[in-house]
């Protein structure tokens, strides 16, 4: 069964850091672009970042540039999101999602994880 | 405020047809594919329509997508109670170099 499982969420103080992980199984992880998408409480979906198959191409939403870093380890079938200088506005459920093609010719995010909750609060 | 504009809500009775609009700009919908995602309560988002009007395997043909210029729409025909949830349009935006989502439309089956 193809699966994405996020982990690493939790409660963190403003200004703190957190590293999210997404474990992939049941498919060829290294063949896919990978995305992080978040949903703040009561809000809609917001794309956060994506990374190409070998990690050489990355894109970020403006609000996280310089604070978040997306990375992957294809030997471990894992995707990561290092989040620094967290603020209340980063409180959200974070989902990882795959796309078989580059975003400009995308086929769509066809597999999503169940999400991990990040709460930034003192 | 989202880059793509959707109505916040839509509703219909069982069996009716509901249409959700999505408006964007030349750097997003106007030049890129549109995607639609269904997000039902307590579940992970699901790809509903890809590349404007294509349905992934397993998605019922009650769901259809279309695009014209800088706007797109999702139609749900034969509305069912299990269709209640949130629906999002999305497109890659060349100006922003990122994916943009609509604000979401909450579909209610009356």
Question: Summarize this, please?
Answer:
With 122 residues, chain A is mainly beta.
Write the layout of secondary structure elements.
The complex is a heterodimer of chains A (122) and B (110).
Chain A: E1 3-7, E2 10-12, E3 18-25, E4 33-39, E5 45-51, E6 58-60, E7 68-73, E8 78-83, E9 92-99, E10 111-112, E11 116-120
Parallel strand pairs in A: 2-11
Antiparallel strand pairs in A: 1-3, 3-8, 4-5, 4-9, 5-6, 7-8, 9-10, 9-11
Chain B: E1 9-12, E2 18-23, E3 34-39, E4 46-49, E5 63-68, E6 71-76, E7 85-93, E8 98-101, E9 105-109
Q: Can you offer a commentary on this structure?
A:
The complex is a heterodimer of chains A (122) and B (110). Chain A has strands at residues 3-7, 10-12, 18-25, 33-39, 45-51, 58-60, 68-73, 78-83, 92-99, 111-112, 116-120. By secondary structure, chain A is mainly beta. In chain A, the strands form two sheets. In chain A, strands 2, 4, 5, 6, 9, 10 and 11 form a seven-stranded mixed β-sheet that branches. The radius of gyration of chain A is 14 Å and the shape is globular. The mean pLDDT of chain A is 97. In chain B, 0% of the residues lie in helices and 45% in strands. Chain B has no helices and nine strands. In chain B, strands 1, 3, 4, 7, 8 and 9 form a six-stranded mixed β-sheet that branches. In chain B, strand 5 and strand 6 (71-76) form a beta hairpin. The model of chain B has no long low-confidence stretch (mean pLDDT 96). Classes of the chains: A mainly beta (122), B mainly beta (110).
């Amino acid at each position: 069964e193809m699966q994405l499982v996020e982990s690493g969420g939790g409660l963190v103080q403003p200004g703190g850091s957190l590293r999210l992980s997404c474990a992939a199984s049941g498919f060829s992880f290294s063949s896919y672009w990978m995305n992080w998408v978040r949903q703040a409480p009561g809000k809609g979906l917001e794309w956060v970042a994506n990374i190409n198959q070998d990690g050489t191409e990355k894109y970020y939403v403006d609000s996280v540039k310089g604070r978040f870093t997306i990375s992957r380890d294809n030997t471990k079938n894992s995707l990561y999101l290092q989040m620094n200088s967290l603020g209340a506005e980063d409180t959200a459920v974070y989902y990882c999602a795959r796309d078989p093609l580059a975003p400009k010719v995308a086929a769509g995010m066809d597999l999503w994880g169940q999400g991990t909750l990040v709460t930034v609060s003192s | 405020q989202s880059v793509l504009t959707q109505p916040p809500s839509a509703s219909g009775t069982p069996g009716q047809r509901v249409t959700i609009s999505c408006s964007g700009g030349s750097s997003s919908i106007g030049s890129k594919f549109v995607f639609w995602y269904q997000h039902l309560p307590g579940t992970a988002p699901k790809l509903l329509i890809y590349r404007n009007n294509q349905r992934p395997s397993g998605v019922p043909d009650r769901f259809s997508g279309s695009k014209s210029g800088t706007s797109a729409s999702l139609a749900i025909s034969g509305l069912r109670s299990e269709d209640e949830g949130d629906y999002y349009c999305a497109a890659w935006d060349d100006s922003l170099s990122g994916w943009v989502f609509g604000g979401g439309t909450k579909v209610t089956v009356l």
